[in-house]
Design a protein that fits this description.
The protein is α/β, with parallel strands linked by helices and 201 residues long. It is built from 9 helices and 8 strands. The two termini are 13 Å apart.
Length: 201
């Protein structure tokens, strides 16, 4: 089975008033287990019209490093992938094609559209990240996400004593990975795969 662990860093919790700053995705194939450091990964810092960035002051402070990179894009363009929010769907779709994922096409009124259907894993992806991605132009049309999202927290919940699903940090602690959550999109995506591997490796 192939699934893609996706994580976003944003300027806040409200998808209607906050923005995506960073998009990370890591491809896992459970029939071809690779070292975590060798897994195919997609990463982009997300540019917004006129460079305007707004959101919650706490989230802006937390992501100050990302914001600085966005402000210094010209100097860093050879080091990082900077993508306009309007181009994110196409850029990610192109990466999926390179990874050998099946790209399908539909034609309507002589216009051909391409899309890929993927299984997604992520901590809180269904209740958080997906809401932001649904706001990205054409993302829902080009990147079709299957309804069943894989959240590793269900593997680590203590059904008798926990009052809620454990956080990513708490899940990591339970497997002895005592490294604080990095709050970078790719590293958090890898954390999710590390946790899920406890059920199939």
């Amino acid at each position: 089975m192939k699934y893609i662990s996706i994580d976003l860093e944003t300027t806040g919790l409200d998808e209607n008033n906050c923005q995506i700053l960073e998009f990370g995705a890591v491809l896992e194939d459970t029939n071809n287990i690779l070292p975590l450091e060798d897994l195919p990964r997609y990463h982009a810092y997300i540019k917004h019209p006129k460079g305007n960035i707004s959101g919650n002051i706490y989230a802006l402070n937390l992501n100050a490093d990302i914001i600085n990179k966005l402000k210094n894009e010209k100097e860093l363009k050879d080091t990082y992938n900077f993508v306009k929010v309007d181009d994110l769907a196409d850029d990610f779709l192109a990466w999926l094609k390179i990874q050998g994922m099946e790209i399908k096409s539909t034609t309507y009124n002589d216009k051909t559209n391409y899309h890929c259907t993927i299984t997604v894993a992520g901590k809180n992806f269904a209740s958080f990240d997906k809401k932001f991605l649904d706001k990205v132009p054409d993302f829902k049309n080009k990147i079709r996400i299957r309804h069943r999202i894989i959240d590793p927290a269900v593997l680590f919940v203590d059904w008798k004593n926990d009052e809620a699903l454990p956080t990513l940090d708490e899940c990591n602690e339970k497997i002895g990975h005592n490294v604080p959550v990095q709050h970078t999109a790719v590293e958090d995506s890898i954390d999710v795969i590390r946790l899920l591997r406890k059920s199939y490796v």
